[in-house]
Amino acid sequence: MDNFYTKQARQALEEAENISKELNHSYIGTEHLLVGLLAVENCAASIILQRNKVSFEEVIGLMETLVSPVGGIAI
Known about the structure:
Blueprint: H1 7-22, H2 30-39, H3 44-51, H4 56-66
Helix pairs in contact: 1-2, 2-4
């Protein structure tokens, strides 16, 4: 299945999985994929997001605020 994705796409998916694990989330959602895209340097998606003032740190901060970890309760 990996053969269907570009190197950059695979990197973005791996980053999404890593972020999900780091934040103790039990799934990989669009927010994780967004962070994964931002983490891949010199890809079109990352460049476009950065030009529109979307930062890796800002998205992570929002995720920490809005998404509760496994077993947690959202406030």
